[in-house]
Amino acid sequence: MLLVLCVDLDDDLGRKTGFSTPVIGREPVKEAAVALATADPEDSDVNVIFQGLHIYDDLDDRDESVEVAVVTGTDGGDVEANRAVGREVDTVLASLSTAEDVTTLIITDGAQDESVIPVIRSRVPIDGVRRVVVRQAQDLESMYYTIKQVLDDPETRGTVLIPLGILLLIYPLALIGSALEMPGFVLGTTSALLGLYLISRGLGLGERLDVAVEYARRSLYAGRTTLLAYVVAAALFVLGGVSGLNTLEGVEATHGDVGAPVILAALVYGSIQWLAAAGVTTSLGQITDEYIAGTLEWRYLNAPFYVLSIAIVLHAVSGFFLDEAGVSYLAAALTAGTLLGIVSTLAFAVLESRYADGEETRTPDRA
Predict the structure, then answer these.
(1) Are residues 66 and 180 in the same domain?
(2) 97 and 25 in contact (C-beta within 8 Å)?
(3) Is 9:72 a contact under the CB 8 Å cutoff?
(4) Per-residue pLDDT tens for 24-44?
(5) Helix, strand, or coil here: 42?
(6) N or C terminus of the chain: which is more exposed, having fewer CB within 10 Å?
(7) Which residues span the domain enclosing 120?
């Protein structure tokens, strides 16, 4: 028996007509086709179902054993839709009362619906695939689906969209420093916005932003202190940047034009205490959450001490470049920062070792 299988991957039939799927048999399939054509005459799945009926009638006139059915997926994505089609194909095959071997001819309206072919092939042999498209728009849906697949693939998306976005940014950058007349301003702004959009799509910034927002929402409702620590740390970073710029302005007012090493030293010297406070805040927030979750390890407690060690070293080195600290202070700070990191590492390593040993020695007693 040949099963003429009309595939509606995004379930236009069910959503637009309320028909329960799968639809099996010529008359039920004809009723479904008429209902879908009445609900949405422009839907391409109408052509798919009528094509299935046409093939059924042609084979039936030649006294061949044939059946026609319509199976649908969902509009929730390719994977979910393919699984739904697989379940409906199983239902159709179970309903066929025949001792003959069943093969199928798949009718689709484009490349997107054909993505379900491996799912169907795993259940029943396929004799062929018939794609139905409107003659006036031949290959239009296939081209759209191909472009959509390219934009959804992270590797291909980055390869295509990022260079194109950079090219679109060249024109507005070329206008900088020149008289911006109204036509040029409009075109430059449009080109810049389009270029930034393509770059953001190429880098997947939208998905990353969604992930960050979802993480923040879950952290907020879960009472995670990390979220609060990050907010405080961001404010401290801003204050550190302002403090660093103020220090740089003071150095330039005193010494005039200075070189890149002095500029960097001034920025670090003025902001390091704020940055260190931000680092300690975030590390303590993370440690608190790990402790509450019961996953805290002793070595995690090294983080605040490492931040302080690095801050001490950077403060001394930047102060030395600005003549705010002498050689003796630099040597003492380097030694203190190094020892602080080493001592904290050894201390928490010993505590972790003893804690682990204690757990091991207590386990046999409980047994």
Answers:
(1) no
(2) no
(3) yes
(4) 999 999 999 999 999 988 788
(5) coil
(6) C
(7) 2-141
